[in-house]
Amino acid sequence: MRTGNEPVHARSPLRMRCGLALWGLLWAVAGTVAFVNAGRPEWAAACAALSMIAATDLILVIRHIHQGPHYQPGREVPPYEPDRGRNEVYGIRRGTGRRGTRP
Questions:
Q1: Checking CA distances to 49, which of 3, 11, 34, 86 falls within 20 to 30 Å?
Q2: The model scores a pTM over 0.70
Q3: Cα–chain-centroid distance for residue 89?
Q4: How many CA within 13 A on the CB side of residue 9?
Q5: How far apart are CA 80 and CA 86, in angstroms?
Q6: CB of 5 within 8 A of CB of 81?
Q7: DSSP run (H or E) holding 14
């Protein structure tokens, strides 16, 4: 079942993103530790930077989950209403997803 009128109000599977960010964070931290122990400071720095990115993503995903059903809808939250041409006001053409020129 669709949970949004994509691409305008697409909803992200935040629990899956949370799991993937956590998995990436664990691997990046493990890589940092392994490269420090192997005496490879360049690779350790790269893994440390990647772990910071994964940690930031994890924090943002958890924040969105805590903000409620707007970001993480449950089965009881109905899908958004269809567009019905409201995006033409903003210059978005129907079906192409591209912005048009305003007259």
A1: 11
A2: no
A3: 27
A4: 16
A5: 13
A6: yes
A7: helix 14-38
CA atoms in the 13 A half-sphere facing the CB of 90: 10
Q: CA-to-CA distance for 68 and 79, rounded, in angstroms?
A: 15
**Residue corresponding to tokens 């041409």:** 85
Q: Letter for the amino acid at 54?
A: A
Q: Which residue has the tokens 């995006």?
A: 87
CA atoms of 5 and 12, how far apart (whole Å): 12
Dist CA 97 CA 61 (whole Å): 26
